[in-house]
Amino acid sequence: MKQLRHIVTKAVVAKGKKRTECSETLRPPNSPSSILGCWVINHTYQAKKNGKFVEVTGKYEINVWYAYNNHSKTAVFSESIPYRERIKLHYRDDEPTGKEEVHIRVIQHPNCVEAVISPDGEHFIITIERELLAEVVGETTICINVHPIEFEEEWDFVDESSSSSSSSSERSSSSSSSSSSDVSSLESSSFHK
User: Fold this and answer.
1) Cβ contacts of residue 141 below 8 Å, gap of 6+?
2) What is the spatial distance between Cα 134 and Cα 33, in angstroms, rounded to a whole number?
3) What is residue 151's predicted lDDT score, i.e. its pLDDT?
4) Within the chain, how many helices (H) and strands (E) appear?
5) What is the SS3 assignment for 7?
6) Cβ-based neighbour number of residue 147 at 10 Å
7) Which residues are 70's β-sheet partners?
8) pLDDT of 162
9) Which of 35, 131, 156, 190 could be disulfide-bonded to 108 (CB atoms 3.0-4.6 Å)?
10) Which residues contact 62 (CB under 8 A, 6 or more apart)?
11) Of 59, 63, 21, 60, which Cα lies nearest the Cα of 38?
12) Beta strands at 32-50 and 53-68: parallel, antiparallel or unpaired
C-alpha cells in the first residue's frame, strides 16, 4: 500500500449526445409559388448543467429564397428560430461533487433536410436536423503505482555475440586476400608472355 498514490486531476466525467429533427413553419409576406433554396446560418448556443442533464439554449436563422406572384418575382425570407435542448448525461463513476465545466461540441450544425410549401400554399414547412455532444469536466481521482527513483523496467533484447562478427570479418578478409593473390598471379603470367 505504501507504493500507491492518489492524484486529483481534471477529466471528462460525463458525456451525453442528442440528435434532433424538427419542423418549423414560416410565414412569408407573399404567397410562395416555389422554393428556390433554403439554408441555415448564424447558429449560436450556450449551455449549463442541471442535475443529470445539460440544458442547451440556442438559436439559428433560416433563410428561404422563393418565387411568388406566379413565378414572376423572387425574395429571401429570413426568420430567427430559438430552441432549447435537454441532453441526458451518462457518468462512468458516481456523480462528482465540486465545480464542473460544461463543454458543447456541435456534431451537426442545424441543417435544412427538407423545405416544402404547405398544402394551403401560404407557408413554408422546413425540416431541420442538428446533433450536439455534451461533455462535463470535473475533478476525479486516479491511483498510480510508485517505484523508487532507481527503478528501471526490464528490457527484453538479444545480446549480439562478438564471435559471429569476427568470424564474418575473417571470412571477408580471407576472400579479399585470395582474390588479390589471383589478380597478382594473372598479372605476372601476362608479363612472362
Assistant:
1) 6, 7, 8, 9
2) 41
3) 64
4) 1, 7
5) strand
6) 10
7) none
8) 58
9) 131
10) 24, 26, 38, 39, 40, 78, 79, 81, 112, 126, 128
11) 63
12) antiparallel
Q: Do residues 58 and 45 make contact, with C-beta atoms less than 8 angstroms apart?
A: yes
CB 107 within 8 A of CB 17: yes
Taking the C-alpha atoms of residue 173 and residue 177, their distance in angstroms, rounded to an integer, is 6
Contact 34, 67 (CB under 8 A): yes
What single-letter amino acid sits at 47?
A
Instruction: State if pTM tops 0.70.
Output: no
The rounded distance, in Å, linking the Cα atoms of 49 and 65 is 38
Chain centroid offset of residue 146 CA: 33
Mean pLDDT, 10 residues at a time, the chain of 193 residues: 81 93 95 95 95 95 96 95 95 77 95 95 95 92 80 71 51 48 48 45
Cell of 29: 409576406
**Separation between Cα atoms, residue 16 and residue 48, nearest integer Å:** 13
